[in-house]
Structures are given as structure tokens and as C-alpha cells.
Amino acid sequence: MTPLLDTPDTITTSQLSYLHRLARDHGMDRAALHDAAGVDSLKRLSVASASALIARLGGGDLPAPGPGRRPPRKQRSPNVIAMITVEQTEQIERLGLQFFAGDRGQFDSWLEKNFKVKQARDLATVERAGQIIAVLKGMLGQPLNTATGIRK
User: Fold this and answer.
1) Is 129 strand, coil or helix?
2) Strand partners for 145
3) CA dist 103 to 100, 109, 110, 123, 133, Å?
4) Deepest of 19, 56, 91, 134, by most Cβ within 10 A of its Cβ?
5) Which pLDDT tens digit goes with each residue over 37-95?
6) Cβ atoms within 10 A of the Cβ of 2, count?
7) What is the dihedral of CA 13, 17, 18, 22, to 10 degrees?
8) Nearest to residue 50, comparing CAs of 95, 2, 88?
């Protein structure tokens, strides 16, 4: 058996997933895949060995992510604070004005009273903007009393 590698040359997550998919496509169970690889665990394969096994199973290069699947995001440092985006500011403005029937004064007063900011663009973080968007969507989801024009 191949010794467990503890180096950057160890099989990648993408290779591991691709090997499992190829095995499924060939009707192989887990034991048969491990036998074909000559290891008791695929995690013991090197990148080169995994590539050779992928080629033996008829796979080519690793496929690109399919529709609706994004490549993995880069990890953000925990000390980095994401600032509010223009899209979030516009969404807050749109939802707020929709709820307050276009009354800018009422909307700005609501922001100041509940979130201690004078305008949506004064919000600092993505997290805070997300909270306000959620609140506004919840408020818009309340049924409207057609007689009074007030949401319950």
C-alpha cells in the first residue's frame, strides 16, 4: 500500500470527487475503486497517482464547474470587514421607499430611529445592510389593510 502523504502533493478534493463520479459512472463500488487505486484510502494517493487513475478510468481533465455551481470562494481574513455595496444601498432604498409609499422623509426617519443612520449609504458593513434588507422584506411581506393603507 502507498504510505499516507502529508505534503501538498496529496490528492486534491476535486480529484477525489472526480474519481468517485467516474467510479459511479463505471458501476464501481468503493472497494473496487480502492482496489483499482491499490490503496485502502484514496486520500493516500498523490496528485500524480490520482491523475493516472483518472486517466485509466477514462476521465480527462477535471471538468469545469457546471451551471449553477461556483468555483470555491477565496477565504477572507477574519479581521477584514466587508463594506456595504452599491447594490445593497440601492436595494435598501428601493425596499424602503416601496414600504413607505415613496415618502423619503418617513423612510429616513425610520432608518435613524431604528438603525441610527440618516441614510442607507451611511451603513458601514455588508452584515448590517443584510439585516436591514431582511427587516424591510419582512415588513413588505405583511398584509396591507386596503381600507387604511396600513400594513398589519
Assistant:
1) helix
2) 150
3) 5, 10, 11, 20, 18
4) 19
5) 888 888 888 888 888 888 888 776 665 555 555 555 666 566 667 777 888 888 988 99
6) 13
7) 150
8) 2
